[in-house]
Amino acid sequence: MMATETAARKPRKALPSMSVLGPVIALVLLIVVGTALNSNFLSAANITNVLARSAFIGIIAVGMTFVITAGGLDLSVGSMAAFIAGLMILVMNAALPVLGIGIPIILLGMAVALVAGIAAGLLNGFLITTLGIEAFIVTLGSMGIYRSLVTWLADGGTLSLDFGLRTFYRPVYFGGLFGISWPIIVFALAVIVGEVLMSRARFGRHCAAIGSNESVAHYSNVNVNRTRLLTYAMLGMLVGVATIMYVPRLGSASASTGVLWELEAIAAVIIGGTILKGGFGRVWGTVIGVLILSMIDNILNLTDLVSPYLNGAIQGVIIILAVILQREAKAKG
Amino acid sequence: MSRPSVLALRHVTKSFGPVEVLHGVTLDLRAGEVLALIGENGAGKSTTMKILAGIEAPSSGRILLDGQEVAFGSLHEGEEAGIVMIHQEFNLAEQLTVEQNIFLGRELRKGWLLDKARMRRLTRDYLARIDCQVDPDTLVSKLSNSDKQMVEIAKALSRDARVLVMDEPTAVLTGSETRILFDQVRALKAAGTAILFTSHKLGEVAEIADTVTVLRDGTLVHDGPAGEITEDEMATVMVGRDVSDLFPDKPVAAPDREVLLRVEGLNVPGRASDISFDLHRGEILGIAGLIGSGRTEAMEGLCGLRPATSTAVEIGGAPVGITRPGDALAHGLCYLTEDRKLRGLLLDKGMRENLTLQALHKYGRVLIDFAAEDRALDQAIDEFDIRAGARSMRVGNLSGGNQQKLLLAKVMQSDPMILIVDEPTRGIDIGTKQQIYAFLRKLAAEGHGVVVISSEMQEVIGLSDRVMVMRSGRIAKVLSGDQITEDIIIRHAMGVGTGSTERVA
């Protein structure tokens, strides 16, 4: 029934589409507004502050970009971070009499965080791919489980790292290299590796193919389940990495650790132009999304123009705007 | 037979774009009569039914309801007039109950609340009338196919259907379920309903129909009482086009060509069983059969795309084990899907990503070499004559023919020794068809083995050196040489007697 016709030649657009420009313009606008409102906004101290605070969500959001691009979702990352933090603190406190304060015990803590993160990610991924349960359901469940587990481990209160240990561990958050703090360096590394993996590697191409159309991917010899499983495992590992950075900041974990991180991470991914139903993702966009979210927070804290309590409302408006922009771009393209 | 017609078509044509698919069809549905509409795939049966039911409007010609010309604006207006169509894929909400489905969209109300008692009473009444034992509270998802069919009929009763149009009602039914359905059809007929149905099973047509109407290529080629036409004659009437020079010349077969692929005892649970065949180097093997005869499933099973077992599979004389698509590709066996839009191409992506997806490992171990991909795309555009406005164009915006050529280029990226193509020219224009036929023949001439699954008779006949006919998940017959005629293929595909060679499906 198809007519014989060659596709009409369309004029090439000179400018990148709004879905690419939108987040960048928004970020530039925020920087302009922030600078206009407060001269300290562009100071090295404030920039470092914004970036360091973005790092936790940012590292997680890099992993989330892959999960969402491959057509998945993970609601459990905030609770997972809290649980891993609690576990890490318990293990380090328990090992203190044996290992004493020193590099080995920090390495042990880091290993626990990474292994726990990967294991938790694999568990999510296994339930979603092999058992074929919907990602929303699985991770909603594991979100509740980890949140409850950390509350139970802390017996409703707070798990605190031994004071001496905390002092020794502090530089991992507060220290740095050439004046750049560790969380920022690790965030940057995660972004660079993630961006290369997404845009230049087979893995990223396979994720986009699966998210775009699972059947096509299957018929094209892409191992759909293994690729999906890897995205969840990678996200779990990055949650572990974020937790390694987070624990030295406060030295404690409680039921309120990492609350709503999952939503911030997902929001950053979407604002950055990754499509929620999968098929297209970009890590650099996610970075811009993370920066937009934390800059709004920062600007509201620096100025008294709008109450900081309205932070959530402004973020919400931006998320919805981002999705509308995406849709416009899609309708035109 | 001389009763006035309830619903009639007069010189109805239908065009999709520049292509006319129905050429002046005239037919009459009479109260208390069953009309069987038969024809090959693509002959225009579905379009005719949709026009009758008001789902599609004719391009020209008239529709008469009780002798008065009508123009249905929608399915709803058709239903208002008492015409109900039952689709092959049931039109039932699976998560609702039988009763809720029967009254869906026209729920009875008492004030602003649902009148459940009356709906319950009427549902029981309708079900009783067709002798159907299901409980009105059962979820439709729990029903068997025949019960779903019955619920559709009950639904039709609730709409006081005067005309019932059924698209291949028996395709999903077992033998005994078909018996039950036919009893109900006879009851409806006795009650004065006009019924039209389509079927590929000519035995059923002979059994239940009063009138047999045959469509071929959108033209009505036979219309007469069922008693005056035999099953053999039906098959003959459905056939009857000569194959033009659309197809490349077939080479004279060398008698002792090496066997490239040997399949023994391939089983795809529920879809195909005991499939055994050989494919020779340089040969094009056609696989014919009705839709649903297990052709696609058997080949997908062979290529590791769906669960399957086999006694033995040999490629180039060496036994191979294939459980995943990657295994098949590693052995040079590649399958091109029949569904280019849902299984073949990523419609939201560009041509480059699509071209290399299946063979991405060739473009770098971890990182992808974009320049090499671009070179491959240049080559593919050139070799397969893909005409796209811009290289970055969404593949979904390409025409069907160009999509198909891109899909062919994509599977060729895997350098297959054996290529299985499924419906390689569905929905594409004749010029592109010819290019694809020429390419497949060239591939075979170069020493590859090619399998072509096709529902288009012309294609199977014009292209294949041998033809394997499948019916109900089994190989009905392998034909070669002079045996490859439309008539013989159709007879085997439909299980109409062809003497001693007939096998029971």
Observed structural traits:
heterodimer; A: about 325 residues; two-stranded antiparallel ribbon; 4 strands; about 75% helix; disordered N terminus; B: about 500 residues; alpha/beta; Rossmann fold; six-stranded mixed beta sheet
Describe this structure in words.
The complex is a heterodimer of chains A (333) and B (505). Chain A has 14 helices and 4 strands. Chain A is mostly helical and 333 residues long. In chain A, the strands form 2 sheets. A two-stranded antiparallel sheet of chain A has the order 1-4. Chain A has a two-stranded antiparallel ribbon with strand order 2-3. In chain A, strand 2 (176-177) and strand 3 form a beta hairpin. The longest helix of chain A is centred in the middle third of the chain and has 27 residues, at 103-129. Chain B has 505 residues and is an alpha/beta fold. Chain B has 3 domains: 5-245, P-loop containing nucleotide triphosphate hydrolases (Rossmann fold, 3-Layer(aba) Sandwich); 255-332 and 416-496, P-loop containing nucleotide triphosphate hydrolases (Rossmann fold), CATH 3.40.50; 340-415, no CATH class. Chain B is 32% helix and 25% strand. Chain B is built from 17 helices and 22 strands. In chain B, helix 4 packs across helix 5, helix 5 packs parallel to helix 6 and helix 13 crosses helix 14 (400-412). The longest helix of chain B has 16 residues, at 175-190. Mean pLDDT of chain B is 84; it is low at 499-505. Chain B: It is found in: Cell membrane. Chain B: Pfam families: ABC_tran. Chain B: Its main location: membrane.
